[in-house]
Structure formats: C-alpha cells, structure tokens
Amino acid sequence: MSEGTMQRAAQREERAPGIPSAPFRPRGGHPRARRLNRFLVCAAAVPMMFLTACSSGSGPAEGDGAQKTAAGKASSSPSTSASPTVPEAAYAKLPEACKVLSDKTLRELVPKGVKSAKELSSSDVSKRAGCSWNSLDNNGVKGSQFRWLTVSLLRFESDVVRGTGEKQAQEYYQKQVRDAQSVPNAKNTKTEPVAGTGNEATVVRYDLKKKEGAFKQQTVVARVENVVVTLDYNGAGLAGDETPDADDLTKSAEKAAKEAVAAVTKANGETAPDASPSPSASESAEKPASPSAKDSASASESAARD
Questions:
Q1: Is the pTM of this model over 0.70?
Q2: Which residue pairs from 263-270 have beta carbons closer than 8 angstroms and sit at least 24 positions apart in sequence?
Q3: Beta-carbon-side half-sphere exposure of residue 293 (alpha carbons within 13 Å)
Q4: Do 94 and 126 touch, CB atoms closer than 8 A?
Q5: Over its length of 306 residues, how does the chain's per-residue pLDDT go in tens digits?
Q6: DSSP 3-state assignment of 192?
Q7: Residue 241: DSSP 8-state
Q8: Residue 189 C-alpha from the chain's centroid
Q9: Cβ count near 195 (within 10 Å)
Q10: How many alpha carbons fall within 13 Å on the CB side of residue 158?
Q11: Which residues lie below 8 Å from residue 227, measured CB to CB, with a gap of 6+?
C-alpha cells in the first residue's frame, strides 16, 4: 500500500462514526458554555435588581415621606383665624309700650286722655315699640288745653358688622338729640342733660307756632344699655286759653322718661338705678360726641379710682 493510500485511510478513521475526535477548544471555553454562564449570572442578578428596586420604590417609605411633606405644609400654612364675635347685648326685651307709664303719671301728663292709648305699628315689638296719648280739656268759652304724648322704644342687638348693641344705641341716641335740636321753625331751643335716667339722657325743649296755637315741645332722649327711649310731650292753650308753662311741662316729661326707662330694666329682670351709673369700659372706649356733664364727671372719678 502506497504512502498516500495509508494517509487517506487514517483520515477516514478519524472522521468515522463512533470515534470522537478531539474537539477544538478556543480560548475562553466553548460558546455554549459561555452563553450558559451569562444566563446564570443574569438570572442571579434579577432578584438583586428586584430587591433594590423595591427598597427604593414607591413603598411605605414613599408614604412616610408624603406624610412628612403634608405635615410640613400644614405646619407652614397659617392657622385659620377664629370667627369674629361681639359681646351679647345687655337687654333682650322691650316692655309693652302702652304700659310703661302708670295711670298716675298719665293723669298728670294727659288728664283727659288716660284711656286714649294707641299702640304704634311695628313689625317686631321686641325691637321697636311705641304708644301715644292725647288729651283735650275743653273749658268752653275760656278755651281748652291740649296735650300730646308719645313714647318710642328702640332696642339694638349686637352685630359683627355694626358693632355691639350698646354702641349702636349710643349712635342712635346722639342722632335723636340732633334731630330734636334741628326741627324746622323751632324757636328758643334749649338742650339740657337729665340726671338719674338710664346711662345718659338729654331734654330738648323749644317753642313751635302752629295755626292752632303756640305749642311748647319737650323731647327727652334716654339710653339704657342697648335701648333708646324717646319721649315727646307738648302742650298748647287753644281757643284763647293761656299757653302752658314750659318748665312745668319739662319736669313732667323728665319724670315720665325716667319711668319708661325703669320699665325697660324691669322687663329684663333688673332694677332701675337711682342715678346714672358710671360709664362702663365699653362706654369709655367709645364716648358719645357730646357727653353730658354728669357722664364726664363720672368718667373722671372712675379714672381717679383706677
């Protein structure tokens, strides 16, 4: 057998089935082994990545952070201010207007008109009430004496916008006095403080000429806490009778006003004081534009005691 024939036979034996030939092992190992190793490494890395993602994801830690952020915002935001309030008004009731004066007082002011009481119309008698009386004492050829009387009561309630009931009453009291001082065609107008009647009181008196005769007018304005009492009283001598004395009419009007104020305090379960009390703290903070001499003296005494 030739040398070439033997060489070819040897090559066939190396490739023959069942006889494994030495595999070719390049550097780095078999390709399949390298792919398997990479798969196992990646598979092992997946749980680690998952755990890392869970620890830094949106779990309970993120909820705690949201709560801290919300708490920080709540602490940095200004607290809600409380709703403004004002002190409750002292008096919550008004007496029956036609019963604020006794029969004795009425017989003095309107001798022929004690039973002539006429209640003034009001949508709420707990806040606004009034009554009027009139008297005509006819003396025949000697003329006659006419009297007219009215009592008005106005109560103010505390309000956040308008202020306390007492403050509103003070403002209305001053307005009533100004109105009485500025009646058209009034003559010989005089204004005087009235002692012992509520917290403050003023009488305005003047003469008023009408076609029926010469009238003497007295207007007493009094304030007790958050209630204002306005009493109008006038008299005239008609058909030739003499004109009544203004001083007498003023004394009667002041007496009736004091009685009406006492009726207000009584309706609210209190007893009327014998004299005007010293101004309260709220009154000292907001005094009327034109306080009476008595109120000014009381304020000075209160300040000296403090």
A1: no
A2: 263/95, 263/99, 263/100, 263/101, 264/91, 264/94, 264/95, 264/100, 264/153, 264/224, 264/227, 264/229, 265/91, 265/224, 266/95, 267/91, 267/93, 267/94, 267/95, 268/90, 268/91, 268/92, 268/93
A3: 5
A4: yes
A5: 545 555 555 555 444 444 444 444 444 555 555 554 554 544 555 445 444 444 444 444 455 555 555 555 545 555 556 678 899 999 999 999 999 999 999 999 999 999 999 999 999 999 999 999 999 999 888 899 999 999 999 999 999 999 999 999 999 999 999 999 999 999 999 999 999 999 999 999 999 998 888 999 999 999 999 999 999 999 999 988 999 999 999 999 999 999 999 999 999 997 654 444 434 333 433 344 444 434 434 444 444 444
A6: strand
A7: P
A8: 38
A9: 13
A10: 13
A11: 91, 94, 153, 154, 155, 156, 169, 264
And the tokens for 216? 């003497």
User: Residue holding tokens 């709540």?
Assistant: 74
